[in-house]
Amino acid sequence: MLTLLVFIPLIAAALVLFIPQSLSNAYKYIALVASLVQLVLAIYVYVSFDGALAGVADPASYQFVEKLPWIRMDLGSLGKLEADYFLGIDGFSMPFLLLTSLVMAVAVLSSWRLEKQLKGFFALLLLLNTSVMGVFTALDFLLFYVFYELMLLPLYFLIGIWGGVRREYAAIKFFLYTLFGSVFMLLVMVGLYFSVTDPDTGAHTFNMLHMMNPDNYGRDSLFSMASSSDLWGVSARLIAFVVLFIAFAIKLPIVPLHTWLPDAHVEAPTPISIVLAGILLKVGGYGFFRVCYSIFPDMVSQCAWYLGFIGVVSIIYGALNALAQEDLKKLVAYSSVSHMGFVLLGAASASPEGISGAMFQMISHGLLSVALFFLVGMLYDRVHDRMIYSFRGLASIMPQFTVMVAITFFASLGLPGFSAFIAEAFSIIGAFNSENLNGFIPHWMAVAGTLGILLGAAYLLWTLQRMFFGRTRLRGGLAWEQALTEPSKRELLAFWPLLLLSLWLGICPSLVFDKLNASVLSLVNLINNYN
Amino acid sequence: MVQDGLFQLGDLLDGIVSGLAFLQPEVTLVITFLLSIFSGLFLARKNAITSLIAVLGLLVSAYFSWKQLALEPGFYLFGDMLYLEGGLAKMKLLLIFAALFFIVLVHLSKFFTAHEKGINDLISILLVLLLGLHIWIMANNWLLVYVAIEMISVASYILVGYLARDRKQSEAAVKYVVFGTVCSAFMLYGMSLLYGLTGSLSLQNMEGFALGLMQRPMLALSISMIFVGLGFKLSFVPFHFWSPDIYQGAPAAVVGFISTAPKLAAFTFLLRLLQVYIAVGGELWEYLRYGLIVISIATMLVGNFAALRQQNLKRLMAYSSIGHTGFVMMLVVADPLQGYSAIFFYLLVYLLTNMGVFSLIGHLEEDHGIINIKQLRGLGKVHALWGVGFAVAMVSLTGLPPTAGFAAKLFIFAGTFTAYQSSGDLTILLLLITGALATVVALFFYFKIPLYLFLKEGNAINRGGNWRLVSLFSIILALTLLFIGIFPSFFY
C-alpha cells in the first residue's frame, strides 16, 4: 500500500519521459491522474488507519508496515551492514500522506497553463512527489536520508529552470542551506548506525525504531545513554540532537536560518511555491518528531527552552518582516516563517496539547499557505505583477476573487472556525501548561506567541485594505483591468477544497486529533521518562 | 661455503619457480606488450589488430586476476619481493577495467584516430603502464617500488605528450616530466637513506626502529622524502599544483586514465605501507598518522575550495580529483587495517565517474570546441538525455543519494567513524567534519555544470554534430551510477 503511494508518481514520471514531445498535452493529465490516484489511496489509508495504535517507538503498533531487506553487506571488520526497505506509518506520518497527495494535486492544477518544457517539469514534479512520500513513510534511517536528499534535486531544477529572474541564486541557496544541514545529519546517522544493533540479528542497523530503544545501543558506543560519552566536553547525544535539530530547522525554517525561504518562494513558479510551503516545510517539523524527539527523547528537556525561544523569535520576527514586505509572495513567505514558529513553540512544550497543536498547525498551514500562494499565483498569472502597491481597489473588478482572498486571510490569521485557530490555540495552551507540567518553557513565551497572532492579523488585514479596498487604481492601467478576470472553473476547483477542508477541520478537529492522539501521548510519555 | 651457496641458490630457484605461477596476469601483460609492439611494427598504422591484441591480452590477464581473488590470506613471492592477496587481485581487475575503458575512449576520440602517429604505439605504452601499476600494488621491496613507479611515470609522460600540438600541450607534458622526475629523485634519495639506516630494502625493514637503533631525524627525513614521491602520484597537498595544468593540457581520454588508475595503485600501496608502519607502531606511526591527517584535511579543503573558482572544465575536474584524494586518505589514515573493501568501492565509483566525465568532456572538446563551463550554456535543454547523464555524474561526484557517489561516501564515513569509535581520537572526528563540509563546498562547484546545462538560457551555436552516441553513453553511465547507488551490495 505505502509502496504504491510512494512509487505511483515515479511510474507516472517514467511514463511522462517516454511519451513523445508531440503529445505534450498529455503530461499534465498523467500527472493529475497520478496525484488523484494517490489521493484516493491516501484517503483509504486515512479511513482504515486505527487511531488507537500509537506507533512512535513501538514497532508493533505501526500500521501498513512493509519491510524488505535492501542492503545486506559484509563489511569485514566493520561487521554487517544492514539497511531495510522499511515503510510504515503512525499518527505522526499519516496526516502528511493525505496532505501531500492533496497539495500535489493542487500543484498540478496550478501548473495547467505552464508552457515551458512540460516534459521536464512534470517528470521532476512527480519525482519530487515520490521523494516526499518516501520521507514521510520511511522508517529506516538510510532510506529516510536517501529520500530526504532526493527531494533536493528535483526542487533545485524546478526552481532553477522555471523560476523568476534570480532563480539560479535562489535555487543554489536553497540547496546549499539544506545540504549544509543534512551532511551533518549524515554523520550523526553513521554514528547512530554504529551505536545501535538489531536485537534479532546482532548486526548494526539503520532501523529508526531500533534506534529509539535504549536497550539496542552498544555498551560503550558513542550515542549510548549509559556510556554518556562526550565530545569536547559536551555530551555526544546533545550534539547529535542539536545537529539533527539544525538540519530539520533549516527546512522548517527557523530564524536565523530562514533566509533561503523568501528567496526560494519569490523565485519559484506558483506550483513549486505551493509544494514548498504546503509540504516541504512540514518535512522539517515531521523530522523533529520522528527523528530528534523520538531517538533523543532524553535531550528534549535540556533543549526545550532554546527551542521555545527560537520558536517565539521566529513567530515575532517573521510577522514583523511580513508587515514590511511589498511583494505579496514575500509576505506570504514570511507569514510561513511566523506560522511555523508555532510548530516549534508547541513542540518545545512537549505537552500533549502543544504537540497536537504543532501537528495540527502543520496540516492547517499546509492547506492555508497553499491557498494563499495559489491566490497570489492567480494574480500573477493574469498581470505578471505581485507588488502590493501595484494594486488598489481590486474588490470592484474581481469581487469573487476578493471574497476568496478575504476568507483565506481571515482563516490564516486564526479566525475561530478555521483550522488555524485550533492549531494556534492548542500550541499556545500547550506552551502555557508547560511551566506547570514539566517546566520546559516559561509562561512569557506563550504570551509572546499570542502577540504573534496579533501581528498576523495586522499584516493580513492591512494588505487586504491596501490591495482590495478603495478606488480602483492599477499600475498597469486599463490593460490590467481587462486582464484581471474572475477565477476560472479549474482555479475554483483547486481552491475551494483547500478552504473547505480548513473550515471542516476547524469545526471538527477530532478528524485529525483522533488519529493523532495515541501517538502524541506515547511521544510525550517517552520524553517524560527522561525528565 | 660453496655448499651453502648452492643450497641458497636452490631455495632461490624454488622460490622463483613457485612464484611464477602467481604472476600469470603480469606475464600475460608482458606477452601482450611484445605482441602489440611487433604488430605495430609490421602492420599499417591504422590497423586495428594491435588494439584487438591488447583487448584480448587484457581480458586474459583479467581472467587470471579473477582466479587470484580467492587467495586469502596473503603471502609473499620471490623471497619477499612481492606480496599477493585477494584484495589486491580485486584492484588489479579494476586497473584492467580502466585500461579497457581507455582503449575504447581512444578509439572514439577524433584527436587520436585522426592523428598521423596512429594509436598503436599508445596502446603498447598503456600496456607497460598497466604492468607497472600491477607490480606497484604488489611490490614489497623499495627497489621494485621505484622501478614500478618509474615505469608508470615514463609511460604517463608519453601518454600526456603523445598528441602535443600546440604550446600549451607541450608545456603540460614538459611540466609533468620535470615535476615527476624531481619528485621521484626525492623518493629515490629517501629510499637510499632508508636503506642506509636499515640495511634492507624490504618494506618491513623497520625492526631496527623498534629496537631504537635508528636515528630519528634521519628516519623522518627519509620517510618524508618517500612521501614526496607518493604525494606527486596521489596529488595531495602540497604536491598537487602540477595536476590542474597537466589535466588542462593533456587529451581528455589520457587525463581520464592517469587521474584514476595510478591513484588507485598509489592508494593501494599507501594502504599496504601504512599497515606495515602501524605494526611497527610507536612514535613513527604517531607522527606519520598526524602528518597524514593534516595532509588529508588540507587536501580536501584546498581541492574543493580551489575548484570553486575554476572556469575550465578540465581544471575543475583536476581540483575535484584532488578533493577526492583527500577524502579517500581520510579512511586510509584513520584505519589502514580495515582492508581494501571500502576503499575499493570508493575507487571503483570514482574511476567510473571520472573516466565517464572525462569522456564526455573529451567529446565536448574535440567535436565542439567547448572547454569552459560557460560554453555549456543551455546545452542540456537541447540534448536532454546527454545533459541528464552529465548532471547525474555530477550529483554522484558530489556524493548525493541515490547515486553511487553517496554509497561510496557513506562507506568512507562509516569506516572512519568506527576508527573514531574504537580509538576515541578527536582528530579523526575532525576529519569527518571536514569531509562533511567539503561536500557542501563541492555541491557548489559541481552544480555549476547542471546550472549552465539547464538553468542558463542557451545560445544557438554548438548545436550541430552527432550527439546520439554520446547521449547513449552518458545515459548508460547515469543508469550505472544510479544502480550502484541503490544496490551497492553487488559491487562491494
Can you walk through the features of this model?
The complex is a heterodimer of chains A (531) and B (492). Chain A is mainly α. Chain A has a domain at 297-523. Chain A is 69% helix and 5% strand. Chain A has 21 helices and four strands. In chain A, a hairpin with a 5-residue loop joins strand 1 and strand 2 (80-89). In chain A, helix 12 runs antiparallel to helix 13 (328-349), helix 12 packs parallel to helix 18 (443-468) and helix 14 runs antiparallel to helix 20. The two termini of chain A are 38 Å apart. The mean pLDDT of chain A is 89. Chain B is mainly alpha-helical. Chain B has helices at residues 2-20, 24-42, 49-68, 86-108, 110-113, 120-138, 142-161, 167-198, 207-210, 216-234, 242-249, 252-258, 261-280, 282-307, 313-334, 341-368, 379-382, 384-398, 404-423, 426-446, 448-455, 468-486; strands at residues 75-77, 82-84. In chain B, helix 11 crosses helix 15 and helix 16 packs antiparallel against helix 19 (404-423). The model of chain B has no long low-confidence stretch (mean pLDDT 87). Chains A and B meet through strand 1, helix 5, helix 6 and helix 7 of A and helix 19, helix 20 and helix 21 of B.
Oligomer: heterodimer
**Cα separation of the termini of chain A:** 38 Å
* Helix content percent band of chain A: 55-70%
Return Rg of chain B in Å: 23 Å
C-alpha-based Rg of chain A, rounded:
23 Å
Strands in their spatial order, largest beta sheet of chain B: 1-2
Mean pLDDT of chain B: 87
Which runs of chain B of at least 5 residues are low in confidence (pLDDT < 50)? none
Structural class of chain B: mainly alpha
Sheet-strand content of chain A, in percent, reads under 5%
DSSP E strands of chain B, number: 2
| Series of secondary-structure elements of chain B, N-terminal to C-terminal | HHHEEHHHHHHHHHHHHHHHHHHH
Shape of chain A: globular
Largest sheet of chain B: 2 strands, antiparallel
**Relative strand content of chain B:** under 5%
